# Entry
Amino acid sequence: MLPLTVNGLLVLDDGKYTNSRVSAAYLCSSQPRNILNVVKWQHFINYKAMFHLYDSIVANKNLGLKEFSGNEPTLYQRLSHDKNLEAIFQLAMQDISRQAQVDLVENVDFSNIKYLVDVGGGNASNIITIAKKYPSLRATVFDSESVCKIARENIQKNGLGDRLTAVAGDCFSNSFPINTDCLLFCHFFTIWSKNKDLELLTKAYKELKPGGRAMIFNMMQNNSKDGPLLAAMGSPYFLTLATGTGMLYTWQEYIELFEKAGFTEIKFQKLPMDHGVIWGIKSED
Ligand SMILES: C[S@@+](CC[C@H](N)C(=O)[O-])C[C@H]1O[C@@H](n2cnc3c(N)ncnc32)[C@H](O)[C@@H]1O
# Structure
């Protein structure tokens, strides 16, 4: 009990332990904003990998992957060998992204988008949130086969099977679905190197129809390269485990990638919690 009272998670009063306000709000499964899925992600996936942080820094690659079965080079591929771990990971992503998704749909106008593809869209929680606000929008998750299965179940559970789908594919080696007005990349450009991000944007530009847009949505690093704190906290995870290459780049660095890929009318919008969107249009001519 001592560690829990010292950390303010339990309160000892008159010989009786009760939850503090923090644990009552965030550590009880009955509460809508509980972080139990994130705690499970840390416990079952991140902590054992982070043991390899020092060696990963020295080798400049994600040696934390050795804790997971398979030979693939990214955590996402290796999770497909373990349904239980993959489900834990996807639920954690959903809960981490939950408030960010609300900020996205409240602040970004999708009214001109008829068909949107969410690349690396996970369990479909992003497109479900967007589709609930825009009743005529159709959207597709583009992710691995095993993750698409989870996405399809989630879509059915939300009664949106008439407008939302999941298509399996690898964003680097398979074509994106055609006739897309918007290729959305949520919390996705942070997991790859800048070269890979440029490869993705160049591919997006090539495959989008004229007038289509690519949009990235994630936390960004300040252009002054001195924060925010969460941008720095992500780097050990991306290096040691996720891909060995990713990090949160600055707003300006992402904007330059859009320019290099050929996009025009590049715009950005800052959102709460150090998040933001950057988008660009494939010109009509
Ligand atoms: C950090 S999670 C982000 C999930 C979701 N977009 C969100 O905002 O919470 C990255 C997602 O990208 C998917 N992914 C990783 N590599 C991919 C690839 N090469 N092609 C397509 N999807 C991929 C993973 O399966 C995972 O669902």
